[in-house]
């Protein structure tokens, strides 16, 4: 390729660079693409007798940004690799748009993929790295030149086209990898922990940028991460996996506010659990939980019956500390630990020999939130902020 590949930084008028539609985002359209739906049906992957992915069925709508989240070994990368074609399923099927791609090789699925380790070709310039998918498709030189310029502008790196990958920072290399994955206008972009090698600040700013690109281009994104903040911040929907199965799928807000199991409640964010037995059942699903430490807490739920063993879950930011006039439930305790983190102060409050909870308070101007270690405090919460789970959930 000639070095004048990127002679203009202006976004050119769009054309059909390789016989497909123009880039939606750069033309300002951002419409959802109907070829980007992903359908997984009864997908299973076994390694000998070990089942890494166990009968997973997922529907991802065209234009949706979905993140698979779960502990290490839960099977999320294996699902992504089966979608990309790098791993062959033991059984089940994979559909992209209206195509069954289960037995189609990765190079023929037409999906964009960005890996954690950038995977740029070290001996090729940035421009040639980004151009690579179009060269493979035998696109003409003028179209390649225009598309590379568009893509490098899209990822906010319009000036690096001559450099080699080793001359870029990790964050810049990951943007180049993104440009390369998007240049051939794939209907679906697969992201395999793309931000995990970056530092916290860069990761957070890239989260916004990837969201923005997703919105502009209207493509489907399937992301895999360990990082729950990243999953919540970036996704339209999060799919939580455990032991090769999907345990819950929903919007970030639904998963955080209404987890259906203690596993999801515990995995996403910080949760306090008060464990004990239900007593004094009233009408309309109310009762009293007597905790292992002998505390009495009012509860309500759909399956409340006497003698039932339960766990009451409370988010630390929903617990009031001393300022408890709006609380339905109040308990006394003392401060056992204080951690000042700048925007928040985290307290551990001992309520009984067996009951300890964490409370976080926003460090807002004009609020005195400093409590001394050992000081007596009252905690409180509203009943609707306390989630009741069966002990075995
Ligand atoms: P991580 O977040 O650590 O990457 P993950 O949720 O992505 O974990 P996978 O990489 O999908 O998990 O792996 C799921 C399970 O399958 C793990 O127990 C893993 O050890 C196993 N596994 C993956 N690849 C193979 C393989 N080639 N042979 C045998 N077992 C494998």
What do these coordinates show?
With 393 residues, the protein is an alpha+beta fold. It has 2 domains: 4-257, P-loop containing nucleotide triphosphate hydrolases (Rossmann fold, 3-Layer(aba) Sandwich), CATH 3.40.50.300; 270-390, RNA polymerase II/Efflux pump adaptor protein, barrel-sandwich hybrid domain (OB fold (Dihydrolipoamide Acetyltransferase, E2P)). Helix content is 21%, strand content 32%. It has helices at 76-84, 126-136, 141-154, 170-182, 200-217, 228-234, 252-257, 262-267; strands at 38-47, 50-60, 65-69, 91-96, 99-100, 112-114, 188-192, 220-225, 237-242, 245-250, 272-279, 286-291, 296-300, 309-314, 320-321, 329-340, 344-350, 356-362, 376-381, 386-390. The strands form 4 sheets. Strands 6-7-8-3-9-10 form a 6-stranded mixed sheet, sandwiched between helices. A 5-stranded antiparallel sheet has the order 13-12-11-14-20. Strands 15-19-16-17-18 form a 5-stranded antiparallel sheet, with no helix packed on it. The longest helix is centred in the middle third of the chain and has 18 residues, at 200-217. The protein starts with 37 loop residues before the first strand and ends with a strand. Bound molecules: adenosine-5'-triphosphate. Residues 47, 50, 52, 70, 72-78, 226 line the site of adenosine-5'-triphosphate (ATP). Adenosine-5'-triphosphate binds next to β2 and α1.
Query: Unreliable runs, pLDDT <50, ≥5 residues?
Result: 1-29
As laid out across the biggest beta sheet, the strand order is 6-7-8-3-9-10
Shape: elongated
Number of helices: 8
Helix/strand-derived category reads alpha+beta
Chain-averaged pLDDT: 88
CATH class of the largest domain: Alpha Beta
CATH architecture of the largest domain: 3-Layer(aba) Sandwich
Q: Could you give the order of the helices and strands?
A: EEEHEEEHHHEHEHEEHHEEEEEEEEEE
Count structural domains.
Answer: 2
Q: Looking at the chains present, what oligomeric state does this protein adopt?
A: single chain
Bound molecules: adenosine-5'-triphosphate
- The CATH superfamily of the largest domain is known as P-loop containing nucleotide triphosphate hydrolases
